[in-house]
């Protein structure tokens, strides 16, 4: 090889390497003074994802990672305005853009693998299409089926689809809600977790109702429900429909010792050691449960997250490192992810801040982890994006 060609090749490789490293942006982090161990370090991949040129995504109220480390995102096309969607107007009013489908599967390197969603794939009951008006919450189980819910007007339903978007089943029915004691209807469900080992799906039924409810996915029958401290669900239900203007309502009444869940029971998930985590966002806390020998939930403990915070509240989602050592809690109001040592719940610190640059968050909504320890986050309101946080060191 000629010397000139070799120099050009080396220069090109250096340029590619530099470009890749330049896309990783440091996060603002806040280690807890006196913590027993350091936090893991993350950087934001500012080049991720690589969506089709004409696509735009709206608010992202749900994320999931499948067994192959693909990220699934759920977004709200109806949160975008005609000014965002020039290509969808007749005639087009600009050179870009069009809304991505509601559900998008993205490879670890950022390429779209699959997408679908909307009323055309949902059933009708008594003339009412069952696709939610405002989608909320996403889960992909070990059988690679996709679960989603909704918290808009009449969205009292959780739908289950194949990975290709074929309808499987649903729980609840749009426009029908019967309160915290109902064993069949829902009240604006926020989040879903399906345990394919026990064949139980548990739902954070938390924008109208204030509870967790479970169903057996062998026969789709009711299995259990519970409220705060694993008691019978109480505290009443939200009067009327939820809308975003109510996101901060009652912030001056936050109570980390409240006997009932607040009116935004925002997440439910299970860690590898079998503990069940519920986000009681209105009361700035997680409640931890486990199933007893009969498969019924029992209370374990409270975990307060930035308890003096008001506004939007704190605990919105929970994720775990692949080795189950670290626990990550998304905090909507403070725009941070809190890092806890999972075994003891020691707070090691936090990272992130409110804002719109890489590694900052506007209405931080969801956090999930892949098998390599990377994190993905989503934002709603005017945030409208997903970010990939690459694990740099532990």
Ordered list of secondary-structure elements with their pairings:
Layout: H1 3-22, E1 24-26, E2 29-31, E3 41-45, E4 55-56, E5 59-65, E6 71-76, E7 98-99, E8 103-106, E9 112-116, E10 124-125, E11 128-129, E12 135-140, E13 146-150, E14 157-161, E15 167-172, E16 191-195, E17 200-205, E18 211-216, E19 221-226, E20 265-270, E21 276-280, E22 285-291, E23 297-304, E24 315-320, E25 326-331, E26 336-341, E27 346-351, E28 364-369, E29 375-379, E30 385-393
Parallel strand pairs: 4-7
Antiparallel strand pairs: 1-3, 2-27, 3-30, 5-6, 6-8, 8-9, 10-11, 12-13, 13-14, 14-15, 16-17, 17-18, 18-19, 20-21, 21-22, 22-23, 24-25, 25-26, 26-27, 28-29, 29-30
Description of the molecule:
By secondary structure, the protein is mostly beta strands. Helices cover 5% and strands 40% of the residues. It has a domain of 202 residues: TolB, C-terminal domain (Neuraminidase), CATH 2.120.10. The protein is built from 1 helix and 30 strands. The N terminus is likely disordered.
